[in-house]
């Protein structure tokens, strides 16, 4: 199982801070460095800068929403970033959420599974350097893109429900989950993805699991902080469904919290349920907890 780290700076920090975090992650030997797309820096643009400054680590987006970006434009931007990063981009994309798409962006969230299927049907050939002639319900696209010096990035989808996992397995390279606990990964995510991938003749799927991590001597305080920090995810329907499958009250119940040995054991156990990549979201409450958390995650490399 490959081990990666999330940056906390795309939303709250500067470009220099993002680059510094990526350099530190690469120096520590992590396999991947993940940039969320929220309401701060554009993740793909930030990773293009990182790709020119930090030469070896895989760079991933987690995740770029599809609705605001036409699939041809997403392909063009991803290929450009992959050229800047010398082929190290993992393009993580997702639908976002109905309340964001409709209330913030004023767009329709109608038929999200159809949207994803059509989106990937347009974007994936373009990433392969092939022209597209596609006539769907949501997209009618004819044309191609050409980005000299680039190559097709890996593409993973923030797919949680069964239908989304099936589309991802058929058309993309895997899934990237958040707020999805180990029992749900074992019983729902991994078997659904594998069955669909085998049916589509695409067996080599990545399962990238992102979870909050904190090494601490004060577990109750850390869990309370997780409940507050990640509260909104427990209220979004797609994540709420995964928490319900896990039997979790909220994100605090799937956070990996405890002493060094417990945290290390819980992360290692994810490999046994079929996770190919683990991405740690560190949330220590003080410099000591942050340092201890990083040391434990690093020890698993």
Automatic annotation (TrEMBL):
Signal peptide: none annotated. SUPFAM superfamilies: Bacterial luciferase-like. One of its GO terms (molecular function) is oxidoreductase activity, acting on paired donors, with incorporation or reduction of molecular oxygen. Gene3D superfamilies: Luciferase-like domain. Pfam families: Bac_luciferase. Coiled coil: none annotated. Residues 1-276 form the Luciferase-like domain. Keywords: Oxidoreductase. The keyword Membrane does not apply. This is Unannotated protein.
């Amino acid at each position: 199982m490959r081990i990666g780290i999330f940056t906390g700076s795309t939303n709250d920090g500067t470009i220099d801070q993002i680059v510094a975090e990526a350099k530190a992650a690469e120096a520590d030997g992590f396999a991947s460095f993940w940039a969320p797309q929220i309401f701060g820096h554009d993740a793909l643009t930030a990773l293009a800068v990182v790709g020119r400054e930090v030469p070896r680590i895989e760079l991933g987006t987690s995740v770029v929403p599809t609705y605001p970006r036409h699939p041809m434009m997403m392909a063009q931007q991803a290929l450009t970033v992959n050229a800047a990063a010398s082929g190290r981009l993992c393009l993580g994309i997702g639908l976002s959420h109905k309340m964001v798409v409709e209330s913030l962006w004023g767009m329709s969230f109608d038929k999200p599974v159809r949207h994803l299927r059509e989106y990937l049907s347009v974007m994936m050939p373009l990433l392969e350097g092939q022209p597209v002639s596609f006539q769907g319900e949501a997209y009618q696209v004819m044309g191609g893109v050409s980005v000299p010096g680039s190559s097709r990035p890996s593409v993973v989808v923030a797919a949680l429900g069964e239908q989304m996992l099936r589309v991802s397995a058929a058309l993309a390279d895997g899934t990237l989950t958040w707020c999805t606990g180990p029992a749900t990964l074992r019983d729902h995510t991994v078997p659904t993805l594998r069955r669909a991938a085998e049916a589509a003749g695409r067996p080599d799927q990545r399962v990238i699991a992102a979870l909050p991590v904190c090494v601490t001597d004060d577990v109750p305080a850390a869990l309370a902080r997780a409940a507050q920090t990640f509260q909104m995810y427990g209220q979004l329907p797609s994540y709420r469904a995964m928490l319900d499958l896990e039997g979790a009250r909220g994100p605090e119940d799937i956070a990996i919290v405890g002493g060094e040995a417990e945290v290390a054991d819980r992360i290692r156990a994810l490999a046994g349920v079929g996770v190919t990549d683990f991405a740690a979201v560190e949330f220590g409450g003080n410099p000591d907890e942050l340092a201890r958390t990083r040391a434990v995650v690093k020890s698993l490399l």
